[in-house]
Structures are given as structure tokens and as C-alpha cells.
Amino acid sequence: MATPIYRDTTRSIYRDIHGVEGSMRRAGQTITASQVIAEERDYFAAQRAGHTVSCEEYSKQEMPHYCKEATADSLAWSTLSDFVSKSVLGFLLCPVIGAAGDIYGRKPFMVVACVANVLVASSLVLYKHRGLPFYWYYVAHAILEAVTAAPTALAALSDCVSPQNRVKCFGLLLACMSFGVMLGPVIGKEVGERRTFEVSLMWTLCTVIFSLIFLKETVPHLQVNMAPRSSDLVQPLLAAPAEVAQESREGIPLAGGSTNNEFQTAASSCWRNAAAKLPTLAGIKILLRNKLFRTLALCVVINGIVSEGMHDTVNLYLQQTLAFTTSDRLTLMMALGVSSLVVQSLLLPLLVRFMHERQILLIGVGVTIIQELGIALATEAWQASALMILGTVSFVIFPAVGTLKANAVGKDEQGQIQGALYGAQSMGQGIGPLLFSGTYQLFTTSKYGFPHFPAAPFILGTMFATMGFLVALKVCRDHKPLFPRSNTGL
């Protein structure tokens, strides 16, 4: 196995183009983010009212019942979509894709993720201009979540960066994606609501072309031409025609001078080797390898429950309780993008200079507790917005956990560990919306008999975040760092 040459500079990320590709991919996903929320509610309101509806034209006091009920419908469908795409498809496929990347390379799977973005954008364009039912958006979105490029991108970075500097580079790569999150809403606001979906489609198509042309392979054994020989996999297929089989039965030597018995032995061996190299769902077992891995996996699942549960519910909460509009959401998304960029590109490298990944993990989970409890107590829109911006500090959690695990496995398992880790997070991200939306409906719908308390999901989030803090505290107490803190900057 070839030893990778680590390039511990900021430029290494851009030399591999993964930072640029991540920014483009995330921008393509967020160009339509705010518009989708409004279109989603209007679609379900129209289904109930029997005619075209624009719910944002009504004030909170004048909003008709079908718009209020449509909000619950959209939440139910988005929650179901998240559960299927993340807890089922993401949990099952992310480890498989990660392990496959260790064998066949990172680039093919990153390109596939870009193509999935095109499917999502296409479904929105067809809905807007050809009357395609909005439900197809959920199908396309589920496919996108199942083949997400995030774990593959982190594994690609692990191929190129030394263990001591991975957390900083992970943060920088995620900062590039945050820049895309910030850029997308800006583009969407500039082009206007009428052309948002079309611009998103064109952008995602350009991202696919960019990835095909400029993305580089990072897996060491593929870089030095040590990949499995294609002839080993093709030979049994080439030997399949009836005339070849007849010649071998008659004792006529096959290509290379081999006889029938030799051919059968070689073919059987090739197929066994090929089958052995195919990744399976057993890749998720890497998370159970030791006590540290199990503890970190639990931490990631809890963080996924809180982050995604809040993400789905907070939009509804701000819309219904604090009267957020599409323009307000765009402004908040841009602010969150800027804050995420600052956290991952400036704050995270600064934290790494003075503490290890375990303490960084603890800080991230602690901020999550403050965010959840603060939103539950907020009475003004600006208070909730400020707390959400503060909550971006929790984005240091995944780079910290990813680094702790990446540093504990060999270079030939980077894709497997990142895929399994992302699969665990996906499971939490699918469960979270179910718990949070269910809690929201229990405390906002009179038929269940509970008191009206829309902030109940965030109290639930505070409880889960506190559990995550205790798990992170256990990591800090029980496990020592595998590598000394790096004093080199990026």
C-alpha cells in the first residue's frame, strides 16, 4: 500500500478542488431553500382549499384555516422524507459508499452526489412549470440524502492531511460548504422568485461538469496505479460466450495458453476476489470497534437528533409563532452562512491551537444546550435569530468527532469510518424530526388535550443536548489524545 504524501496547508484543499466543489454543491442546494418552504405550504394549502393559494399574503390573524393546516401537512411530509432518507437510506448507504470509496476512489461518488442535486432541482422546475406533484421533490430529496457527498469529501481530505491537522482542515472544508450556504440565498434573492428554480437547475448542472473535469482522485493506491486490475474483473465475462466454452471443453487452449481446468480455477478466483472487495452493510460495525468509537457514535446520533429536529421545527415555529416571512428567512440564512463560515474557518483553527478535539467537542455540545433553551424562552424574532446564529458554534462537533475517529483508524479505512460516522448521524437526523414535530403537534393541537406550548420541542432538545454533553464529558474523562496538539497554523 502506498503511503500518502500529506500536504498540511490551506492550499492543499483548493489544489484538490474539494473546497470549491463543496461551495458550489451547497450553493445549488440553498438557492431554493427559502422558496421551497413557501411553495411547500402553498401546495398543501391548495390541496385543501381546492384552488391556488399564497399563504404569505395573509397576516397571522387573518390566515385561513387551510393555510394553518397546510403547515402541519408540510411538516408531516418533510419529517417522513427525512426519516426515510436519513434514518433508513442514509444509515444503510453511507457506510457502503464510504467503504466503496476506499476501494474504487472518492471522485465517482462525489459526482453521483452532484447528479442527485440535479434531480432535486429538476423536480422543482417540473413542479413549477409542468404541474408535477410536489411529492416528487421528496423522492428526489431522499435520493440526495442517501448519496450525500459529505462523508466522501471528508475521507478525501483525510487522504491528504496528516492526523494532527485534520480537525482544522475538516473545519476549513466545512467552512467552504458554509460559504455555499451563504451564497445560495443571496443568488436566490437576486434572481427573484420566478426564476429561482431554473437558476438552481443550471447551477447544479454546472457543478456536475466542474466535478467531472476538475475533481482529483485522492485514494493512495489509485494514485499510484495499484487499483485492482480491470482484466481480473473482466476476464470471466469475456470467457462467457458459448463458442469459447465449447473450445475449452474440446481441449483447445484459451488465450494465454490456459486449458479448461485452469480457466475455471482462474475465473472462480477472480469472482471471489471481486465479491470480497464489494462493500457491505457490515461497514457500520466499525463504530462498535471499541469503547471510544461507541461513545463517539452515541454523541453523533444525539447531535443529529437535536440539530435536524430543530432545523425542521424551528422554521415552522418562527413562521407560526414569530411571524417570519420568506424575506426574513433569507436574511437569517445568509447570517447563518456568514456565522458558520467564521466558526469553521477562524474560530475552529483558533480553538485547535489551545485545546484538543475532546474539549472542542465539549464546547460545541455546551453551546447547543444554550441555543435550545434560549429559543424555548425567546419572545421576539430577533432573540431567536441571535440564538440560532450563536448555535453555529456547535458546527465544531462533527469535525472534532470525525478527527478523533479518523486518527484512530488506518489510511485504508478513512472512507469506511467517515461513511459509518455519517450514517450514524443520518439515523439521528431522521429520528429528530419525528420526535420534534410530534412534540410540536402535541402541544399546538387542541385535540390532544395538552396545554398550548409551541416551544415544547426546544425543551426536548435541551434534554437531548444535556445527554450529549454528559457523553462528551465521558469522552474527555476516559480517553487520552492519540496525537500531540499541532502548533502549526494553516
Number of DSSP E strands: 0
Give the ordered list of helices and strands.
HHHHHHHHHHHHHHHHHHHH
Structural class: mainly alpha
**Count of alpha and pi helical runs:** 20
CATH architecture of the largest domain: Up-down Bundle
What is the helix fraction of residues, given as a range? Answer: over 70%
Please name the fourth-level CATH homologous superfamily of the largest domain. MFS general substrate transporter like domains
How many structural domains can be distinguished in the coordinates? 2
CATH topology (level 3) name of the largest domain: Growth Hormone, Chain: A
- Principal-axis shape equals globular
**At the first level of CATH, what is the class of the largest domain?**
Mainly Alpha
Q: What kind of sheet is the major sheet?
A: none
Low-confidence stretches: 1-11, 224-260, 262-280, 482-490
Keyphrases for this structure?
disordered C terminus, Growth Hormone, Chain: A, mainly alpha, 490 residues
